[in-house]
Amino acid sequence: MTDLNQKQERDQWGSKVGFIFAAAGSAVGLGNLWKFPYTAGQNGGGVFVFIYLALVLIIGFTLMMAELILGRTTQLGPVGAYRKLKEKWSWVGYIGVLASFLIVTFYSVIGGWILKYIVTAFQGGFNVTDVAILETTFTNFIGAPVEPLIYHGAFMLITLGIVMGGISGGIEKASKVLMPGLLIMMVVIMIRSMTLPGAMAGVEYLLKPDFTMLNMKVVLAALGQVFFSLSLGMGVIITYGSYLSKNENLVESSFYIPLLDTILALLSGLTILPAVFALGFDPAGGPGLLFITLPGVFAGMPFGSFFAILFFILVLFAAVTSSISLLEASVSLFVDEFKWNRKKATITLGVIAFLIGVPSSLANGPVMSDMTFINGMNFFDSMSFFAENLLLPLSGLLLAIFIGWIWGTDKAVEEATNSGQVKFGLAKAWAFIIKWVAPLGIGYIFFQSVLTLFS
Ligand code: PFF
Fold it and tell me: What does the pLDDT read at residue 14?
């Protein structure tokens, strides 16, 4: 893949597997490893997982394919893609880019926490099994005014450095090694976590839905998580699709990416929640879960420090392959639309993203924890709500309406299958979902999100 600004000679993915791993590299990140387990923990466990899986199947696959189609057919990023097909729709592309920009501001704060944990793991700081101590260590760290900002800055610098160099070749190559590495590593740690005494309660909590816990909040959280985790609604998948060759069958690709993403989310859930139960921690404990319980698991493991280092490094890679795709979305927009050079665009946007991330970091400590923005939420949670629960569904809703009603599902299906046949009436089902189920479903959920703004 070349720099996204070299439109004349557009490169293409080296191989289908390479593309799938790279797209999965964008999809698999902190959303799976950090956010999925704690969001499940806060939303009733099994019932959240059940709704999440249903939404991935119905909406995730459909929109993933829609974005790939839009990108491949136009060979352009989101703004250009909409514009090429219908001039008046180009603003929809901007919504996604705005969302990805806002997300990278706080994504980098969490990325910084991962960096800090790598440093701690190297210093042998994970010899503690007492969850109370681990919790205090974590909350003291994220609540401090300065140290997390330094790590946030470092993470943003890594992201910025890679994006500035253009994301050529590297992403595809690195993802091919790192994704399988992460998968194997997760399985090893999952086995350790599931064999801790008392761990089965966590497995049950995650896999056995209790439908009495089902409410709108759970559905909202699940849909937000589907968009976030699959990198949907931000134009990133459109951009990745634009580098696909015309011979590729998109139906298959749009199946594997969500599949890999979902496997990693479930593995992470099955690693963290059993440990939460075994170590006597609260499943609804929030963003700290990964950072509090896993060190406890490592401490009790043979070669724990070694596994801790390896694990947090792999998480860092997963986070970086996601954060570069997040920042790249707005950088390529400035390069393509406003004719900035890549270096200037990357540095300017990276610095602004760092600055907007500062209050997200401070929101975890005494400096800003009392300040509330949307609905009594602190700055960090408000940003995440605004981007994930408002902008992303809005952009997904408009995407479905665009493909279903404006551009037309026939053309889309033709593009996806290279005018070939699809078995089992899949094309019809897909068209039905994109025309009716996705707009009505996402529209309703989006409306509920808007309502919570006024409640
Ligand atoms: N999908 C990534 C994750 O789960 O961590 C986050 C992300 C990356 C979202 C890229 C959106 C995106 F465009």
Answer: 72
Of residues 270, 365, 325, the one with CA closest to residue 100: 325
Amino acid present at 312: F
Whether the model pTM is above 0.90: yes
Q: Is the CB of 346 under 6 A from ligand 1?
A: no
**Structural domain boundaries of the chain?**
16-366
Amino acid at site 233: G
CA angle 86, 75, 79 (to 5 degrees): 45
Contact between residue 445 and residue 219 where contact means Cβ atoms under 8 Å apart: yes
CA 4 from centroid of its chain's CA atoms: 21
Do residues 108 and 152 lie in contact, with contact meaning Cβ atoms separated by under 8 Å? yes
Dump pLDDT digits (tens) for 258-300: 999 999 999 999 999 999 999 888 999 888 899 998 898 888 8
Taking the centre of ligand 1 as the mean of its atom positions, its distance from the CA of residue 107, in whole angstroms, is 9
- Distant-in-sequence contacts of 363-366, Cβ < 8 A, 24+ apart: 364/139, 364/142, 364/143, 364/148, 365/142, 365/143, 365/144, 365/145, 366/143
pLDDT tens profile 9-37: 566 777 777 778 778 888 999 999 999 99
Q: How far is the CA of 405 from the centre of ligand 1 (A)?
A: 27
Q: Which CATH class is domain 16-366?
A: mainly alpha
- For ligand 1, say whether the CB of 384 is within 6 Å of any of its atoms: no
Q: What is the pLDDT of residue 6?
A: 43
Half-sphere exposure of 183 (CA within 13 A, CB side): 14
